[in-house]
Structures are given as C-alpha cells and as structure tokens.
Amino acid sequence: MPTSSDNLEIKLTDADLKKINDALDALDAALAPVLITLTGKEIQRLPKASDASLPFIEKALDLAEQQPQFAPGYVDIPGLRLDLVAWQQLQRVARRLQPLASNLASTSIKLGSESYVTALAYYSSVQQAAKQGVSGAQDARDTLKTRFEQSTAQKAAKATPKQ
Asked: Basic and acidic residues bias: where (predicted)?
C-alpha cells in the first residue's frame, strides 16, 4: 500500500470500476431496506447514543424485561431489544466501512493535490513562455488564468462590505 508521501500512480481499468460499482450496488441493495435519511435538523434533535451508552441501554433492557411493571405503557420492550440488536449490527458495519471511506477520501485528496500541483507547474511554465513571446503560450495562459480570475473576483466580492 502506498504511503502518504509517495507520488501516487493509480490506474483503474473499466473492469476495476465495474467490480467496485457492482460491490457498491450489492451493498446498497443489502442496506436499502433498513436505512433511512434524516435531515440535519432531525439529527440535531435526536439524543445521541454512543459506545459509552451501550452498558446503560443493556442494563435498562435487562431490567425492563425482568421487571416490566416499571415500564410506562408507551415503552415497547421487545422493540427496544430489536432496536439495540440492529444498532449494534449496523455499528459493526459502520466501523468496517469507516477506514475504507477514510482511505478513499485520503487517496482522493492526495490525487487531487498531485493533479493540482502538476497543473500549477504547467501553468507557471506557460506564463513564462507567454512572457517570452512563445507562439501559442498566450492563448494557453488566457485559458488557464480564468481559474484564478474567478477566484480573485469571488474573494473581492466577499471582501466588499455590504451596505
């Protein structure tokens, strides 16, 4: 496995991409029946359980099953057991996916950075060639400089105080 300081040279074939997408499709199909989508506000409103909450939840469930007379009528004790088991199962899946997602993000960031640095080196060379009057260099410079003009214009717009 390459390290973060290595210059990455990755070539994914169409077959590689098909294999990856097929695996993702299978994962998506397996999880789709049980996954939901929450809005940011919905997530904020929910009390959060963590690994530190697990002993409390397990003890509460054990006690509720042993002494159901203390449970209010709206508490679904069998539903609590189902929720707990499903939460633990999905936590294991999430823990398995987390390093993969993190490494995918890191690799993508590194490849993007390498691409950008190389493109900047090329742009710098084009700028020098344009200054020296090399044929075609000015057109290439004009094409590439638009990336920085947009960025500069956006920064200037943000810096201008609103009245």
From this structure: 139-148
